[in-house]
Amino acid sequence: MIDIVGRRYLYFLISAVVILPGLIGLLVWGPPEAAIDFTGGNLLEVRFEPGMRPQPAAVVTLAEDAGISEALVQTAGDTDLVLRTKPLAADQRAALLSLLEETADGGLTILRDEQVGPSIGAEVGQRAVGAVALAVLGILAYITYAFRGVAHAVRYGVAAILAMLHDVAVVISIQVLLAHFLGWEVDSLFLTALLTVIGFSVHDSIVVFDRIRENQKTLRRLPYDVLVNHSIVQTLGRSINTQLTVALVLLSLLLFGGVTMQHFVTILLIGVLSGTYSSIFNAAPILVVWENREWKTWFRRRPSRA
Questions:
Q1: Would the pTM of this model clear 0.85, i.e. be above it?
Q2: In what order do the strands lie in the sheet with 80-85?
């Protein structure tokens, strides 16, 4: 049988290796730059002749050619495009419009060209943090109640929350690295992806915990760490197959969904993979560490040999 619980500290170390570089980068480089969703900028809405509208990815490339990075491009109807950018200098605006007109062969109509404020402000961010805190309390209360027939039921809720925080830390760490090396900014889609990861994270952990609860009724003579490992192995195939289907869909979107979805799908894919890992290699092993009170021996010196 695969010994996952017996190698729990190896898996904890792997998690630390993934998370620490981004957290160190956060201290050294500072928070990732916020996108125009949070800072505001220019909004340009243009209309093309039927059949002449370029793809959003092509417009993003045109914006980069005009010296404009991180433009957000959306389609509207069959002929319109909406571009949100950071505040533009006069030469940048002129260059962008010139490139768009060349693409449209002159058949371009400007519907809106104005300064806009941030679509997502500090208040929305604060509400998101509050919603996550409320969700954490709700998850803890629900799992504790659902596992009330098991000894130390609250531990299951705490372990699920720690696994969820692990996934959040992984996503934030990767975002810091992507922001520094690729220039990917924090926008509304990143916030959406992060909240989706939080909601998705606990699912697999509960499946493993439920199997532990069932096995405690029939395999009560087994040592707790052996029982937990047996439960993880029993659910391993289901967990991997379930997450693999989601990961394959996200991978397809990442490869063929276009540049406008690249950041969102990348963060979501990282979060899903991290959620699968944490539910198998972190959440249940945390229960074993807690049951054995292993922290009492972490810093204890081993007796020296004569």
A1: no
A2: 72-76, 80-85, 41-48, 108-116
